[in-house]
Amino acid sequence: MINENASLLEEIYRATKMGLEATQLVIPKVQSPRLRTEIEDQALRYRDMGAKVKRMLHADGRMPGAERTMQKAMLRGSIRINTMVNQTPSHIARLMMNGTAAGIRGVTKNLDRLDGADTEVKKLAEDYIINEQKNIDELKKHL
Hints:
This protein is an all-alpha fold. Helices cover about 80% and strands about 0% of the residues. α1 runs antiparallel to α4, α1 packs parallel to α5 and α2 packs antiparallel against α5.
């Protein structure tokens, strides 16, 4: 039997790590001060959420899973290619929205699938989804 708490926490951790990586890759390419600040704030929230998830995993005697190097390489390549020619705020906002939506889908899928997880872990997943939706709402202002 799988540990549903650990599985859901792992998915949240993976999503926050990918989100943090994406923000760090995009920030140097952002020319709009307002958009840059929003993405920097998003990065801080990813860092905080990731640290919280890591503490919860450690409290359960677990370590976060290894990074998926292929996924990380694909993210880097995608951002590099997508910002090579077009670095407008609307284009960067759209890229960030797409990545954010992917994180929401992954966590939501696991939240629905792992209904035996503890209330605290489910709440953390729901908080992640709510925060990501707020990120999308902020990014929409740049379209």
